[in-house]
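Running low. Any example?
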Amino acid sequence: MKISLVYISLSGNTASFIKRLSTFLQERHENVEIEQVDIKDMVKEERPFYAMSQPFVAFLPTYLEGGNGLDNGDVEILTNDLGDFIAFEENYKRCFGIVGSGNRNFNNQYCLTAKQYAERFGFPVLDTFELRGLNEDVKRIGLKIEELYGM
């Protein structure tokens, strides 16, 4: 079985979470293949976007421009390439949902970008975690992914 995790990581927090999540899933299922699609690398290497051939889960950190997340400060910056990939060739139709990450110190802005993607594309926010995520976040989200893939 193949599990696809599509993400963008700017500071390394989301990449660290994806690595630990992949290890968690592979330790529990020896026959599982984890496809990690790093959008930042695709853009940096100028590789073209492509249509996903199977369902996937998206992971998105929150980077917003200023404000408080309520009446201002909800403009996404730096992570737009993930949205472009999800929109490309209707990839959003194969997306189970999105997992957001952020810093709880930002109150209403915490994982706001993931909520905006869910509204924009019509899929759910599956879960959230703070910064690099804790081991219990990895386990909780890993179990949700297993359920989504019918494992």
